[in-house]
Amino acid sequence: MNCASFVQTEGLTKVYSSGKIQLCALKNVNLTLAEGKFLGVTGPSGSGKSTLVNLLGGLDTPSSGRIKVQGRDICELNKEELAIYRRYQVGMIFQSFNLIPSYTALENVAFPLLFAGVAKRERNQRAAEMLTRVGLYPRKDHRPAELSGGEQQRAAIARALVNQPKILLADEPTGNLDSITAKEIVKTLADLNRNQGVTVIMISHEELLLQEFAHEVIRLRDGEIVDREKLR
Amino acid sequence: MRMSDYIEQSFSNLARRKLRTFLTTFGVVIGIGALVSMFAFGQGVQKNMTDKFKELELFNCVNVFPPTMQEQSQPKPALSPSAALRVNSVEGTKEEPQQAPVLDDDLIQRIGKIEGVESAFAEIRFPAMVRLREKERFSLVQVLPADVCQSGLSKLLAAGEPYASDDANSLIISDSLLHGMKIKDAKTVIGEQVELSTLRFDPNLLSPAAIASIMRGDEIPFSRESYTFTIVGVAERMGFGGSMPVRSDVFIPPGPSEKMKKISLTSIWDFFSAAAGPGQAKGYSMVTVKLSSAKYVQPVKQQIEDWGFKTFALIDGLKEIKRAFIFMDMFLFAVAMIAITVASLGIINTMVMSILERYKEIGIMKAVGAGDRDVKKIFFFESGVIGFLGGIFGLALGWAVGVVINQVANYFLAKQGVPYTDYFSFPWWLCLGAVAFSIVVSLAAGIYPTLRAARVDPVVALRHD
Ligand SMILES: Nc1ncnc2c1ncn2[C@@H]1O[C@H](COP(=O)(O)OP(=O)(O)OP(=O)(O)O)[C@@H](O)[C@H]1O
Ligand SMILES: [Mg+2]
After folding, report:
1. What is the mean pLDDT of residues B375-402?
2. For B67-76, B146-155, B213-222, which range has the lowest pLDDT when averaged over its residues?
3. What does the pLDDT read at residue B91?
4. Do the domain assignments include residue A152?
5. Is the Cβ–Cβ distance between A33 and A201 less than 8 Å?
6. Quick one: what percent of chain A has pLDDT higher than 70?
7. ∠ CA(B79), CA(B83), CA(B85), 5° rounding?
8. Which of A20, A166, B119, B366 has its CB surrounded by the most CB atoms within 10 Å?
């Protein structure tokens, strides 16, 4: 395994065509990232940050180019194989948390294990462990509506990591949080990155947070990487 | 995903929208309930009829009739050329009997010698006034040989037993006639004396004076004769389309019948032959032949038809009856199918609604690693569970409806002396089939919503609002 290219994209391009208008959300993006890094992604609105992360997470497929994760081209996977990739290789968190409102925190965290075919007892046990790790165990029986934004995002992080993925993709995880909570969340991600060796790719508009926690930051504009900064 | 998880998930997802799930399932319950009760009714009627026929060994019977009047007096050459041709080709080799064959005692003896024939008896019925416990009722009396009474009628006896010999001065009375006389308990009349008064058309009374009295309305040209019998048994009236040989209210053995002065009333023909005097008898209007087994029906029929008579066997009519039942079943099925179709539209509606509501949830499922197949199965199981619950409760509803209608029908029919009958039958295949059908229909209704759920694009579903 070449650690220098744990995640690698080659000529990654995504074109959205609605009617006659063609919109190039990503243009020829070449990116390499070593294992265990914390990568920050920033850029103005509409620059293609979410598009990039969705492609890396296997939620979307590129118009052209390749994405290699651990040396394997995920663009060649069929739909079912891509689902398995999402299940075990990557975890995703979002700006709006995307927890299921009718489920408790514990049920939300245990949800991905359902598709992994894990038995109910073990599902609950592993979900409880993950909640403990993000410091939310005492609130395990609360529904999302009864949790603060920071707590909801912690539950989302626990859910993303419950299947022990190698990569954590975060699309503006702090966008809906106040600055103090935002910092706590990013610190949690940085700790997971440092202690568990999870590779983190995080989109954020907050330059200060990126400067404080990220190993590298890339800047996108109009679907192209315009700058790559090594911080540590 | 595990099987148990799919089941648990679908129940808990359905429980989230209790009212909607209840209403949708209720639609299925009504559809399946209608289907079950209608099929049970169709089955019940069919079962009743064939069971009763089998019990009475009616399938082992052949009825013999004299050739029809037209055939007896057929003017041969006066037919149109084509009809004449047809007649010739059909009857080409067969010799036309010179005289019309007659259904008489001689024939009954000849029939009795055919292989497989257990007994043959003429159907003799005559009107009589039945007098019991100071009450009088006008009724038809049927002459039934003792052996037929023992083999066929004994199964219908509500009380008592069949008469033992052809010469006994005993009779069997129907409970509907007793009912008409307001006698409730059938057992109490066993052993009681009953008086039969026959009417006889008397040519001697046809004097001008008698005719004048008929005109005045105070005298009729019949003479009355009374005979006393002992009641030995009470027969139940048949629940369904009573066919021969038991369709009268009073049965007597042939011995005493021969000594009675009476007019036979099986047909208007008998009436005139009786009026013309005993010497001019044209024979019986019908002879019933009992066979030891249904397999002799065809050969015996053939033999008797070769002698120039007409025959009828109920077993031939069975095909017609079965066809009528298929038609009835199809009609009931069509009605129930309308209910089922409406119910499946309800399921489609509910599932599509549910998918629109859980659009984001489907996106989450996919983001955390659910494949299209997992998503499809989750929604497919939900439709299946609606179908399963609808099937179970629909079966219960159909059964309950059947029981209630059965009780009500029997309550009213009992007043007319009809014995208790199950008009609904729930064979095991109907119960299993109803639940299976409900599940299959619900799954079919779930196909389109399920495909829609699987097509949800997670990127669109998860884009923050
Ligand atoms: N499904 C789609 N159909 C058409 N155009 C799309 C679609 N998804 C994204 N786009 C377009 O692609 C471009 C990049 O979108 P993307 O969501 O990646 O931007 P972003 O950098 O995440 O912006 P933001 O910071 O506002 O989240 C935008 O111009 C957007 O309008
Ligand atoms: Mg975005």
Report:
1. 94
2. B67-76
3. 43
4. yes
5. yes
6. 98
7. 105
8. B366
Contact (Cβ atoms closer than 8 angstroms) between residue B342 and residue B27: yes
Contact A115 B360 (CB under 8 A): no
Question: Residue A119's domain spans which residues?
Answer: 98-164
**Atom 5 of ligand 1, residue of closest alpha carbon:** A16
A-B Cβ pairs (cutoff 8 Å, strict)? 72
- What is the CA B450 to chain-centroid distance, rounded? 46
Provide, as residue numbers in chain A, all residues whose Cβ is less than 8 Å from the Cβ of B459: 54, 59-60
- Ligand 1 pocket, mutate which of A18, A41, A51 (most atoms under 8 A from CB): A51
What average pLDDT does chain B have? 77
* Residue B42, both tokens: 């169709």
CB contact under 8 A, A98 and B360: yes
Which of helix, strand or coil describes residue B42?
helix
Ligand 1, atom 30, residue with closest C-alpha: A46
Give Cα B453 to chain centroid, integer Å: 51
Mean pLDDT of B62-86: 53
Nearest to B371 among A50, A79, A99 (CB): A79
**What digits encode the pLDDT tens for the residues B84-123?**
444 444 444 444 444 567 777 777 778 777 777 777 777 7
Nearest CB among B367, B372, B373 relative to A86 is that of: B367
What residues of A are in contact with residue B1 (Cβ under 8 Å)?
A: 114-115, 117
Question: pTM, whole model, 2 decimals?
Answer: 0.71
For the segment B116-135, the average pLDDT, to the nearest whole number, is: 78
Res B276: pLDDT: 46
A26-30, A200-204, B103-107: range with lowest mean pLDDT: B103-107
In a domain, A62, yes or no: no
**Is the CB of A16 within 6 Å of ligand 1?**
yes
Pairing state between β B157-160 and A216-221: unpaired
On chain A, the residues whose CB falls within 8 A of the CB of B354 are: none
- Does residue A131 lie in a domain region? yes
Please give the sequence-ordered ranges of beta strands (E in DSSP) within B267-366, or none if there are none: 287-291, 310-313
The number of C-alpha atoms within 13 Å of B374 and in the hemisphere containing its C-beta is 27
DSSP string, B446-464: HHHHHHHHHH--HHHHHS-
Q: Are A60 and A54 in contact (CB under 8 A)?
A: yes
- Asked whether the beta carbons of residue A84 and residue B369 sit closer than 8 angstroms, the reply is yes
CA geometry: angle at A82 spanning A79 and A84, to 5°?
115
DSSP annotation of B227: E
pLDDT of B264 strictly over 70: no
User: Which pLDDT band holds residue B244 (cuts at 50, 70, 90)?
Assistant: very low
Counted domains in chain A: 1
- Those residues whose C-beta lies under 8 Å from the C-beta of residue B363, and which sit 6 or more positions away, are A98, B456, B457, B458, B459, B460, B461, B462
CA distances to B30, B118, B387, B397 from B26, in Å: 6, 57, 10, 10
Contact B201, B221 (CB under 8 A): yes
Minimum mean pLDDT range among A82-96, B320-334, B365-379:
B320-334
Kindly determine whether residue B364 and residue A100, on different chains, have CB atoms separated by under 8 Å: yes
Give dist(CA B179, CA B416) in Å, integer. Answer: 7
| Residue A43 CA, ligand 1 centroid: distance in Å | 12
- Nearest-5° angle of CA B132, CA B133, CA B135? 70
Mean pLDDT of B147-174: 76
Q: Select the more confidently predicted residue: B272 or A103.
A: A103
A53 lines ligand 1 (CB under 6 A): no
Residue A187 in any domain: the answer is: no
